[in-house]
Amino acid sequence: MVTVLVEEKYNTKTSKNEYLITIFQGEPPYKLFFIAIDNQGQVIIGSNKKTVTTYVVGELEILI
Predict the structure, then answer these.
(1) Of the candidates 24, 35, 49, 57, which lies 20 to 30 Å from 9 by C-alpha distance?
(2) pLDDT, tens digit, for every residue of 11-58?
């Protein structure tokens, strides 16, 4: 289901280090969350868009 949200229902695209990332942004507005999928097919979920995009391009070793 997460893959469908990101690949078919995404609502934003962003880039980090010239790498285009498709992101699904979920709500409620007081507790946003962001979902992306990296090149290895791993699902990345976080409450901060910058942290998620940084992890997807491989600059973080651990996502807390």
Answers:
(1) 57
(2) 778 888 788 888 888 877 778 888 888 878 888 889 988 888 888 888
Closest CA to 34 of 46, 43, 22: 46
Lateral strand order in the sheet of 43-46 = 12-16, 19-26, 33-37, 43-46
CA gap 61, 28 in Å, rounded: 28
**Distance, CA of 4 to CA of 55 (rounded, Å):** 20
Give pTM, 2 decimals. Answer: 0.72
The structural domains of the chain, with segments of one domain joined by +, span 2-56
Residue in this structure with the two tokens 């229902």, named with its chain if needed: 9
